[in-house]
Amino acid sequence: MNLSTPPSQPGVVPDWATLGPCPHLERYLLGPELGRGGMGRVLEAWDPMLRRVVAIKLLHGSDPEWILRFLREAQAQARLEHPNICHILDMGQADGMPYIAMQRIQGSSLSELRPELGLDDMARILADVAGAVHAAHRAGLIHRDLKPSNILVERRADGAFHPYVVDFGLARDFQATDLTLSWAALGTPTFMSPEQARCEPLGPPADVYSLGATLYALLTGHPPYESATLAGLLTQQSASGVRAVRRLNARVPRDLETLTLKCLEEDPALRYPSAFALEEDLRRYLAGEPIRARPVGPLGRLWRWAKRRPALSGTLAASLGIIVLLGAWNVRTLRQARIREQVAQRFALEIRDAEHLLRIERMMPRHDIRPAEARLRARMAGIQADMARLGGIAQGPGHYALGRGLLSLREFDKAIKELETAWQLGFQVPEVAYGLGLAQLKRFEEHRYLLLGQGGDKEEARRKFHQELAVPGLRWMARAKGATVDNPEYGEALAAWASDRYEEADRRFALALEQAPWLVEALVSRARCMYMRPPPPGTTAAAHLAKMVGIAEAFLPLAERLAPSDASALAIHGNMYLGLAVLASSSRERSEVPVHRAKELMDQALEITPGDPYLATLSSGITLQLGFLYLSSGRDPGAMVREKARFIEAFQKENQEGMTELDRIAIQLTVHNLWWVALEADCRFGRDPREALAQATRAREAMAPNPHHAFPLFLEAQERRSRGQDPGPLYTQAQALSEGFLATKTYADSAFIHTILGQCLLEKAAWELDRGKGGAATLSRAIQVLQRAAELDPALAYTYYYLPRAQALQARSQRRAGQPATKALQDARVAATKGLAINPRNAQLQLAAADAYLAQAQGQTEAI
Asked: Is the pTM of this model over 0.90?
């Protein structure tokens, strides 16, 4: 764009936006193209919300490497506030591709502007640019691609030139100590420092060199070295010194030449120590004051010549031959050590880039993520091969890199082992401690979450996991102070949650998301934190869960839009709907809608990671819940639950290697419950129940005791009774199981376990009464246990499946014995009424109420 173009007035709509319909990008109206490069293009745009003209940067294609660089540019440049750095205003995503909205600069590049500049203009512009670069260095960033085309210049109303540094796509945090910075030789060779061309770790002197190369090109019209390849550049830089500025442009003052050549020293230690020092010398030159840089004298030139020609200088200085040989040997040794260190860094760096690429894959439209995960694993295999080749120096950083890769894959147990190995090998930097803390706390989060759906002593299991995972995680986080990581607030939020500081955890999750809105894991953890928060006193579990799900709904759809190929948000979202369905199963609002919504979300998650054990288990749990709904409404779920039971059994065999112990427990329980529902369906709908019974028994015997194990025992007892066999041992086994759980602290006040025991005693009493073996005492105890269950949880419909029946059976037994049955009948009617009040559409409650009223009618008929 020509510098004479008048700048847009704030709030004034540009002419092109008023001439007709314009293409949209989210809220922005897109206008004329301002420029393009190999990776993307820049368009002028109008922001109608904030009424300002901006520049929108878009990518040409969907290359993950380009997207990674694109995101880095936005993240790096947004960290900086300086009048000579182009401001990032916004970042977003449209049709799966990211874009950057930035300050609209009314000007052209420094390379285009050169013919219009005097020598002092060049020095003044470079002084401003050096100040901006110094601000970036103070923020921990090096640009790595400074050149005339990445400096845009506006002409102000007073005629002064105002430069802006742009394109931070290659910027890196040089202060990081976690060896995850990529020093790959990216950038423009002709403006690249020697150490950058050699892929060495970089610091501010690398940008100082590029500033000097830019000033050299302005003063002479040519870059210091002209080569299109890194190999050619390295050859020129090592074989010959840079040509003197005044040889190419005699008008350049000696001081300006001196400070330019000081920037271009091959040895970083001989350059200006900072961009600020360069800026100061340029200001001194412009003010007519003596500069601090000094021209290289004859001895210095001789030394540089000798360094470039060591063999020739050794021949000429035969008397120093031994010293030269020793020096060469030392250089060789140091070079080998440096190479080993660089390679050790390189494979750690590859993991960082692979992590970013995996994150980008997760932000793409929904697809199978396993190929992307396989690429990360291939990089990890390459790192392991390099570790074996390099030996000791590579082991600590290598295990840390592997641990970081496993964290990205969310394989937290394996990540912990790798990170602990790195620490034990002496690689004891804060970043390793942070990685260990994060892995331990994430594993605790998973265990704590999965316990919501498991039987057994959950509080005892939670205490166990807290001691084994949360406590070490908190200790590691305490040792990680000062770690250079992308999102420290996320780790702090997990630590607060592990300590049950829910309000602080939520506040820190929110802060982490302010700093990194793309951090999907923070959105998911925040939703989990809400979902698992205990209800306040006086609030029912159902009401509390419904409220928490409503709050979490603000986070999870955002996570699903932000990362359509990240299954974690879909999984917790589906599980929340499943939880709502379970809690609503006994209420009058019982509906299949939450279950079908859960199934829809889980099907989407399984498209992303088809081999995930947790998702497979959760999908089976949804089928199980649908089976319960079918049974309660008189439909036959037999075929559906059988198919899912066989699927999850086959899945378990195929995926044994990738499963944790908790995964196996969850799958075993799900398999047992599916066969139990199949067994009940067979019994109700007149099919041969032997296969389902055998499968449920096999699953039960492979597991630790669980309260649900009583149900197949009841069904097996009914089957034995139908064939005239003795069901007594089965009732005894179910009774012992239930009483064992009631004897524990966790289940002593469980209405559910009381009801299981009451059901067992009722069925046992009915059999005893039929056989004339007493049964009155057993029936009396069944009623007492069921009444206790009703006291513990008056809203549990399951209790009222059996309490009215037990009281009706007691009334019939009393009448047969010639005893008054009025109270038992009245109690049965009251219990039936309470059950129907919970959910009048529940078939089991209706059958129980019908039995109570039938007993009353039978008594009235007998009286007549």
From this structure: no
